[in-house]
Amino acid sequence: MDISEVSKQTGIPSSALRYYEQKGLITSVREKGERRRYGTNVLDQLALIALGQAAGLALDEIRSMLSPYGPPNIDRQLLAAKADEIDALIKRLKAMSSGLRHAAACPAPSHVECPSFQKLLKSAATGALEKRWGKTKLHGPRK
CA torsion sign, 9 to 12 to 13 to 17? Predict the structure, then answer.
């Protein structure tokens, strides 16, 4: 299947397909002057790439799990670490959401008079919130 067919079937722009090929995520076969042609397994590889990106994996991490001539070699330890990272982020976001909801519905006449809000302000000013919730990011550095 040529590059335009793959692009049409997946919705992935041809430029992204060429980039994935350059990064070693997918492979094509072509004669000089002809369009890139991909094997039927490219659709599965592209689905795995999309799934990995949705989970916050860098392209280099995804590439390490793909095999051009066989099934993927899934790094279970990497996936467990990414799941832990996502869980920590969820915990942090839930705590932030709870604080914002309190601030929005606080019965104190002014946030300056609210002990809970003042405690949050002091924690934020000292960096305690980041230490408490961790500096978890969904995406690590992109490679």
Answer: negative
Q: What is the pLDDT of residues 2-15, one digit of tens each?
A: 999 999 999 999 99
Phi/psi of residue 24, nearest 5 degrees? 85, 20
How crowded is residue 38: how many other Cβ atoms within 10 Å of its Cβ?
21
Residues 6+ apart with CB under 8 A from 24: 63
18-27: long-range pairs with CB below 8 Å, 24+: 20/46, 20/49, 20/59, 23/59, 23/60, 23/63, 24/63, 25/49, 25/59, 25/62, 25/63, 25/66, 26/66, 26/68, 27/68
pLDDT in tens, 51-83: 999 999 999 999 999 876 778 888 999 999 999
Residues 6+ apart with CB under 8 A from 11: none
CA distance 104 to 11: 41
Beta-bridge partners for 37: 2, 29
Measured over all CA atoms, what is the biggest interatomic distance in the chain, rounded to whole angstroms? 74
